[in-house]
Amino acid sequence: MEVVRIYRRTVKRGALAAASGLLAGYTALAVGELAASLVRPQAGPVTVVGGAAIDRTPAWLKDYAIRSFGQNDKLVLQLGILATIGLLAALLGLFALGHRRTGSVGVLLFGLVGAGAALTRPDAAGAGDVLPSLLGALAGALVLYVLIGKLNGPDGTPSTDADPDGRAAAQGPGWNRRGFLITAGITALASTGAGALGRTLTGRSGQGAAASRAAVKLPSPASPAAATPARATLRIPGISAFTTPNKDFYRVDTALVVPKVDADTWRLRIHGKGVPRPRTYTFQDLLDRPLIERNITLTCVSNEVGGPYVGSARWLGVRLADLLREAGVKAPSKGGPADQLVARSVDGMTLGTPVEDLLDGRDAMLAVGMNGEPLPFDHGFPVRMVVPGLYGYVSACKWIVDIELTTFDSYDPYWVKRKWARKAPIKTQARIDTPKPFAQTGAGTVMVAGVAWAQHRGIERVEVRVDDGPWQDAQLAEQDTTDTWRQWSYPWKTTPGGHNLTVRATDGTGQVQTEQRARTIPDGASGWHSVFVTAT
Question: Burial letters for 37-56: b for 16+ Cβ neighbours within 10 Å, e otherwise?
């Protein structure tokens, strides 16, 4: 019986020690988030550690995360970080049971890791960014030290002389059960309050940006988009809408915290190699210029064959070529010394775009509006780049604040450093939207339909194949512009059984979409999209 009692006592004290570690970790995060709300929301411990993890993740693993978790990849990362912190905190609590001071110092070391991550972030704003991690770790270390002291007893050494109910045995005073529970309860409440206050203050810090967006009155475009042809939209259930609503538009970026930029204080600087007349623009400067409005389909390079990371919107903005020429920029083919434009986001992201493409007459723009409203924060408010024909990682800089002209030989942007290609024109792709994979269809004629895209070249033809049969021409919706996707449909006369439906497209230059399968790395996926369905 004595052995059982000792075992139960040991397990109970171990559980309480692990709980102490978890509470210390919770306190550290809560205090860190509160401090971040006063310093800078992007300097929060989870955010800086998560950002550092993203920066150091191999390209193939990032691609896997996007493919597996979609737009929830950041949530999965944050949950993973929290789970890891929780596990380490519990282990530190157990360790501190026999090594109180060393265990508490261990919490401080994690604060140093967070501080180091904060200083190495591309958007680091200075030494102040280390405060949230350090203050949080200090609070966590103090909590662990105090709780373990209550658990060990008055002299701070591991107690072995209390029964499971906390009553002192004959040899000594035992652990302070009442003091431990009171201290833990007060700590939990205080930490929860600190975290809640931090979230409230962080929310308020974005109110100015929200107010500036609400006050934006988008002017009428000097060059409006032509009306979308009525026959550009097919009324077939299950097919992607020609214009993607803002709320449904895909989002793929590395920002764990969406930047909330105040349009009233936003500035854009254009400078660098071959820029004889550097310029700085305010948001109002852009609104006061002649604006263009265009329907443009964007595609993420992480989009697998048949994937969801493609969407079409009506964009409003300033021609980027006009701004570059005003600054004196010349295309390389005209003798300009710079062949790469590096766009920098407020969060430190860098994207590199070929200067030649920006000055070749395409409707590259600094967008201020999306589908008739100011850009949503998720999609780059107040200003973002939109360049038809190029994958987003080399063209679609959101929350843009800086444009530097340089060369590909002298600078590698964020994704190029991670083994993605320097140049990335969008590949011709077609997708089957309906029927869905493994769907069961009825007998008779079933409408197979979807979208195809080859931005800046347009879609000339779409073909569908059933099993290993001949290719059959699909019916094309009317082309809006070469910069938008094109809907298509094919009336399939079913026969009972399982069938593989495959689609391919031909672009406006006559180039047939390749059958060769390639993954997204380094310059976009290729291959034919197919779905397996069963006809009854």
Answer: bbbbbbbbbbbbbbbbbbbe
